[in-house]
Amino acid sequence: MAEQILLMDNITVIYPNGFAANRDVRLACERGSIHALLGENGAGKTTLMKVLFGFLEPTEGQIVLKGQPIRFRDSLDAIRHGVGMVHQHFMLVEAMTVFENIILGDKHAKGLFIDRAARRKEIEELSAKYGLDVQLDKLITEISVGEQQRTEILKALYHGAELLILDEPSAALTDIEVEGLFAIMQKLIGEGKSIIFISHKMREVLHISDRITVLRLGEVVGTVARADTDGQKLANMMIGKELTESQYEKVDASGAEVVASLDHVDYDKEHKHSGVNDMTLQIRSGEIVGIAGVDGNGQTQLAQLITGVIAPQGGKIYLKDRSVAVFDPHSFITDGVSHVPEDRNAQGLVGDMSIAENLVLKETDSPKFSQGKGLRLNKRAIHDYAEEMVQKYDVRCTSVGQTVRSLSGGNQQKVILARELESQPSLLVMAHPTRGLDIGAASFVHEQMIAARERGVGILLISADFDEILEMSDRILVCFEGQIMGEFSGKNPPIEEISLAMTGK
To answer: 296 or 350, which is more confident?
Structure first.
């Protein structure tokens, strides 16, 4: 029987407002294994890991680490006891080099003195041992996302981590970088390290994990060995009901009104993997047009062009039958364009503003919510509207005054959906709308898309998730190096042909 490195026994966390984020949670992890933690957004995974890493003190329960009961005073205390954490949003100092970030808080420091040569040698040895290839003298701003993640892992190992928490580690990585991450994880457990792996991606969990614990509404549903389960069983545990494969009816909108079109549009076409090159397409009322393609082939620029963020360098863009002359997001909003951006934190929400404030960002000058075109806000009307939207879109929160930054990713996306759909758009642009979301939250997004389509909204879906494109699209356009390589019906799509077109063939 394998040695147990961690036992979180009957962990309960109740916030001052009475909300129970965790209730009687039991999590046991074995040395030299990868233990996955699954659950819908808001299921209590983050709270549980905050307890383990010393950010939160539990209301009840205890942590047993390497056989000894312990209560962490703070995250530094957790680190001293061999617990490391790589957050989804990296905790690196951008103005420092990779090397400086790793040695920050160095336990070997004597006063202000650090033997940099000795520390550098130690880091280089760790890097070689675990395949953590980093450029020690580069600034954090000068390295890729994958290198930043490796820096975080190397930093945790340098500070003595035996138990490593990886929070959504693949969320921002390419497929090749994910493969590299998994190779690193296997090396770590081969050396006796232990990993708690938090992910919403079922395939990854089933591929890399040894055991899986599922949380729902703050409680443990069950713990299973990877060999004894499958994606369907895990999904059923996560959401508490039977999941069936989506069977959204595909529609033919060929005779419907064109709500938006691009006519031979160019934008920075010299850069094949980021520009748009002679792109022509149409989106009609009451259909979902999916853009299939390897990420980085002009999809981001397409979304920016059709929402007014950037202006084309050649060709024309039409909203309904009118050629667009002024390119700015506000003009496009006025013309009935809504946008669910690919980065909800940087582009979709103001993190330090409340749920209520974010819900009316587009309408602060509306008579419904203000007097004098935004000079005096009607706070009661905003609050009442927000309460209605929170109920309608099932935003799980303590109050509408809660900052959106404090919400889970799925609930943040619901706030964006509520704001963008309630503005009654004719065109809805959705860029990677389910990225980083669990199955339940992703299903909610898809249901809202279908409901909008039935109301006559034309939807442009940009997603790097090929399965999502196949599942949701009435028409599929393939984008390669900024060009449309082919158009296919979403009903019984020829997968092999689409795959070839995605490679430019």
So the answer is: 350
